[in-house]
Each structure stands twice: as structure tokens, then as C-alpha cells.
């Protein structure tokens, strides 16, 4: 085994940066959007049948996004811990992590798309995030499956 092909260097640096940026992004998402969505005024404006902005899918969409954001925050922390412990499960966790992120992105896009047929919503961000998820999976899942550095680093 070549020493340069083990350790948390190489392309794994980008994984580390991505996980930390994801934590920051999730905190911002939770503070700016998730928590305010549960404010009684906002919640009623979106989920009350008498409200102007009511749509039957707002409630499941808001709940799904809240569960996803909190779950992904915890999952990201677990992935970081497993990475620094060089745990052999880390590569599998990252494959699940990227796959779940993509799946939730697709479901979220479908829900927002369904809501937007009745309202004028900006779908560009949702579509861009879904496309980014596809590209991320296409790059990083094969990397975790084939990389010699990954195979040599995560052995505990």
C-alpha cells in the first residue's frame, strides 16, 4: 500500500468541505425557513383551508422538509464522526447519504411542482438542487466504490 493512497487527503478533502458546508446550509435552512414555517401565523396561512395560500400539500411538504433537514443534520454529523474515526462503514454511509439526499430532492421537487400548479412558485432552485443531486451521485458514489484511497483509509 502506498502511503499517499491512505488518509483523509486527496479527493476526501472535498468530501470534508462538502459535509461542513452542508451543516452550515442546513442550519441556515432550519433557522430561516423550517422554524418560521411552524409559526402559528405562517402555518395557518399555508395549511388552513380558509387561507388564501392554502394547498393540501403544504402541510406534508413542510413536515417532510423539517424532518429531512433535522435528519440530514444528524446524519451529516454522524458521517463526519465516522470519517474521522476512519470507520469502515463510512463509504457505505456516504453512498446512502447521497442517495437519500437525491431521493428527498426529487420528492420535494414533485411536491413543490404540484403546489405550483395552483400558485406561482419559483421552481428554479428546486430543479437546480435536484440536478446538483444527480451530478453529486454520479461523481461521488462511484468514487466511494472504486477509490483505492477510500479502501485503504476506512479500515477500522
UniProtKB/TrEMBL annotation:
Residue stretches in coiled coil: none
Keywords: Membrane, Transmembrane, Transmembrane helix
One matching Pfam family: DUF2569
TM spans (from-to): 12-35, 62-83, 95-115, 130-146
Name the UniProt record assigns to this protein: DUF2569 domain-containing protein
Species of provenance: Cohnella rhizosphaerae
Lineage, highest ranks first: Bacteria, Bacillati, Bacillota, Bacilli, Bacillales
